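User: Second chain of the day. Same drill as before.
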Amino acid sequence: MNAINENIGSELYTDFKRFNYDWTHLFSEKDSASSSTADTLQQESGNSDSLDKSSFITVEKANNTSGTDAKIFHIEIHENGNHNTDKRVGIVNISLTGENLTKSLKGTPDTSKKRRRQLFEVLNYAIKKNIEILIFPEASIPFEWLPLLVEQSYKNNIAIIGGTEYYLPRLLSDSIVNDVSSSDQASQNSTYITSVIDNNAYNILFSIFPIKKKKYNTAIPLLRIKNYYSPSEIQLLRGYHFDVPQNTPEYHLYHWRGIYFSVYNCFELSNIADRAIFKSKVDFIVAVEFNRDVSYFSNIAESWARDLHCFIIQSNPSDYGDSRIIQPTKSETKDVIRVKGGDFPLVLVSIHKISELRDFQRMEYCLQIPKSTEPPFYKPSPARYEWEWVEQRIKNSCVTDQPWIEACYQKSNIDSKGSN
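Assistant: Same format as last time:
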């Protein structure tokens, strides 16, 4: 991954691994385990100081066959046990104003009690409804609150996805101390140092995954910089004397608890080539947005659901609306959820029937046609949709490019040349 992404991600990982895993591991041994049991735990898990990021995730660079220059990384999140592929998803419908972004650019983000109370209303509702994946809009969370979200993720077993307000190295001190807990131990273990000092304004996309390893819980925060800033966003940043990061486009394919998905950040959706990167390889795409041009992005999302033949989860502030979940079905039933407006935060909940969609996708066109007339009325998969990748997802296997897939393409090209 590029330098700034890897740097921020590693610093956050080191901090939370130390607090969430090592700290829990050591105190569990001390307080509740006998000496013999403690020895057994130590042998099973190894020295906790030796655990590194590879104990929880594996990051592999994957081939990009879409024709763009974007780097693709397949991120495997390791966890024990089997999981149901059908996921309970929650979209956060919350009001956001440009004033919050302006405050963050001035170095005075709104971290008031009122705003924090709204955040906890959302989190508490998500916990009550047993939501497994909670999705916030773009730029909806102060960067300083990331530690709080990580704590909520691992304590309540919820994956949390969204965007932070701008990360501004120029205005930040060398260290940020989170306020998750007032205890000395928590404060000591919740400080991370950033060595990235420049004049850029980083629009950060975060994906936080809870992980259960043996009897211990932790969470992995994975961050990515927005690939394409919108023209109005660039104008805003330059107006406050900030630069726009010049980084190679990068996308992540996540494999977590039996599901495969990627996350796009608002204006990234406007790149038609980048939208095709994960064709056949994902169960759903998450799009986090702070977007006024609802009509344009709505058309993109609807065509995307059909072109990739997957669920599209779109989260946009309630001020502009069109937060929705789209499925690749006929027009009358394509919207699982769709909402606009509201004065108070709320969470829209839906169960993604991923196993049902996979069963449909693994069939050839001739069998999909009669099934398309039955609920939920899935449309047939598009041309060059690779059912082999569906089989890989069903098997819970890696969906990076394999030699046998390349061989299929080569054979297809030879056959087409021969027929000419």
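Residues 153 and 210 are 6 Å apart (CA to CA).

User: Great, on to the next one.
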